[in-house]
């Protein structure tokens, strides 16, 4: 008769070899689960914000007395070691500390790791806010541009809000 171990219930017999196999399988499954958790935690680094690089193709789409529409291509760099998806942008834009307008983007873009990417941008501008700065812009060759807001970035189904904060001086010539 094979070597058997008995359980508290007298009618159930488990062979010793089978119980040690079940114990080893359980131990292996736990080790695999621990390694998977470690890999997932290490791989889920919080995304860094994008670095502004350049503004290209600036155009006035519609010029009006109350509102005007502008478009441009914004060039950014993704400093992350992984690609991300950009789902949403919500930013306020200021010129020389005067509110220029709100930039909103609600689309999904795939952004490669450690690479530059272009973000096509359109924005409605309140003309009364521009008129406040007209004299200073006419006599100055440089303006301070500030952008503050958030972007929603992530991978798969996991998305987080990443703050956007940019301030820089730009040459500006009307004529």
Structure description:
A hairpin with a 4-residue loop joins strand 3 (51-62) and strand 4 (67-78). The strands form two sheets. Strands 3, 4, 5, 6, 7, 8, 9 and 10 form an eight-stranded antiparallel beta sheet that branches. The model is unreliable at 38-42 (pLDDT under 50). With 175 residues, the protein is α+β, with helices and mostly antiparallel strands. It contains three helices and ten strands; from the N terminus they run ββαββββββααββ. It folds into two domains: 4-43, no CATH class; 51-171, Sandwich (Immunoglobulin-like), CATH 2.60.40.
Short account of what is shown:
The protein is α+β, with helices and mostly antiparallel strands and 175 residues long.
Describe this protein with a few key phrases.
8-stranded antiparallel beta sheet, 2 domains, alpha+beta, Immunoglobulin-like, two-stranded antiparallel ribbon, single chain, elongated, about 180 residues
Helix count equals: 3
CATH architecture of the largest domain: Sandwich
Order of helices and strands: EEHEEEEEEHHEE
User: Based on CA inertia axes, which overall geometry fits?
Assistant: elongated
Supply the number of structural domains: 2
CATH topology of the largest domain: Immunoglobulin-like
Fraction of residues in helices? 10-25%
CATH homologous superfamily of the largest domain?
Answer: Immunoglobulins
Mean pLDDT: 75
**Main CATH class of the largest domain:** Mainly Beta
Strand content: over 45%
Class by alpha and beta content: alpha+beta
Largest sheet: 8 strands, antiparallel
What is the CA-based Rg, rounded? 29 Å
Through-space gap between termini: 102 Å
Count of distinct strands: 10
Low-confidence stretches: 38-42
